[in-house]
């Protein structure tokens, strides 16, 4: 039975997760969350070690709110024998808590709500007057398209697979094959990309109206080249880690449930 945990790095959702776990009665130390916690973390007592979600390494280091440089290999070398290691996609040791369909679905909904909020702040027209293209129709793309449509936007979906376009059409969206996206881009006030691969090349971006918005909502390598977009007088933003920025406590609720489910399997 795990009673003491150690949280390694992370963003605001990791900080909120620690708060929730403490309210549940767990003793939780942090390393890289608050200033000075690298000196107070109790490594030898850790029965479970939580790496951040999503697990990512930038310049060889785990993200840390405190600014501490945390190298994954150094952490693994310091862990006590028998400690349960929980992590998101990106590590080979331990147990992955992001293999949880409910966690993925809840994060998709949070991300979609955040993206709608971001979109509304950028355009100078209301959503009911807007034409928006969503590239990709996975969990996130679908949640985003449905929220935009519910608020009155004319939503187009560009997806690679026919079954995704069929699902989008059944949901009330207008659809286009991803390879034919340039045919409709000239009519769009905004494009929201949810695909972590470059799907809009320079020729596609040239079809857009100057001053139109591109919101990059996926992870690297991203759906378009930002420098090319700016050269074409397109307004663009890369909006990473939306759940942590927009609703970290809601993201932490979902993460806590996934962690608890995984610990119950140990």
Can you put this structure into words, describing what you see?
With 266 residues, this protein is of the alpha/beta class. Helices cover 38% and strands 17% of the residues. Helix 8 links the parallel strand 9 and strand 10. The N and C termini lie close together (9 Å). The mean pLDDT is 94.
Write the topology of this structure:
Blueprint: E1 4-8, H1 12-23, E2 27-31, H2 37-40, E3 48-50, H3 72-78, E4 84-87, E5 95-96, H4 101-122, E6 131-135, H5 139-150, E7 154-159, H6 162-170, E8 174-177, H7 182-185, E9 190-193, H8 202-205, E10 213-216, H9 226-231, E11 235-238, H10 242-246, H11 248-264
Parallel strand pairs: 1-2, 1-3, 3-4, 4-5, 6-7, 6-9, 7-8, 9-10, 10-11
Task: Give the structure's gist in a few sentences.
With 266 residues, the protein is an alpha/beta fold. Helices cover 38% and strands 17% of the residues.
**Averaged pLDDT, please?**
94
- What would you call the shape? elongated
Class by helix and strand content? alpha/beta
Main sheet: strands, sense, barrel: 6 strands, parallel
Sequence stretches where pLDDT stays below 50 over 5 or more residues: none
Main sheet: which strands, in order across? Answer: 8-7-6-9-10-11
Total helical elements: 11
Q: What series of H and E elements makes up the topology?
A: EHEHEHEEHEHEHEHEHEHEHH
């Amino acid at each position: 039975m795990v009673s003491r945990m150690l949280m390694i790095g992370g963003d605001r959702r990791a900080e909120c997760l620690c708060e929730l776990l403490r309210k549940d009665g767990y003793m939780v130390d942090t390393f890289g969350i608050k200033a000075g916690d690298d000196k107070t973390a109790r490594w030898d007592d850790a029965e479970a070690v939580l790496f951040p979600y999503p697990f990512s390494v930038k310049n060889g280091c785990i993200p840390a709110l405190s600014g501490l440089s945390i190298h994954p290999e150094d952490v693994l070398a310091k862990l006590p024998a028998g400690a349960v290691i929980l992590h998101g996609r990106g590590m080979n040791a331990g147990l992955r808590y992001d293999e949880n369909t409910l966690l993925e679905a809840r994060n998709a909904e949070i991300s979609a709500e955040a993206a709608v909020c971001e979109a509304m702040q950028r355009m100078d027209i209301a959503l009911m007057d807007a034409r928006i293209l969503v590239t990709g129709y996975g969990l996130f793309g679908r949640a985003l398209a449905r929220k935009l449509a519910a608020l009155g936007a004319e939503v187009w979906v560009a997806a690679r697979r026919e079954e995704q376009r069929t699902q989008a059409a059944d949901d009330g969206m207008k659809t286009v094959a991803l390879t034919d996206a340039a045919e409709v881009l000239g009519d769009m006030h905004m494009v929201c990309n949810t695909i972590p691969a470059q799907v809009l090349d320079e020729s596609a971006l040239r079809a857009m109206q100057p001053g139109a918005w591109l919101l990059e909502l996926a992870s690297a390598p991203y759906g378009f080249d930002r420098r090319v977009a700016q050269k074409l007088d397109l307004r663009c933003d890369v909006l990473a880690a939306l759940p942590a920025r927009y609703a970290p406590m809601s993201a932490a609720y979902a993460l806590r449930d996934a962690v608890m489910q995984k610990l119950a399997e140990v």
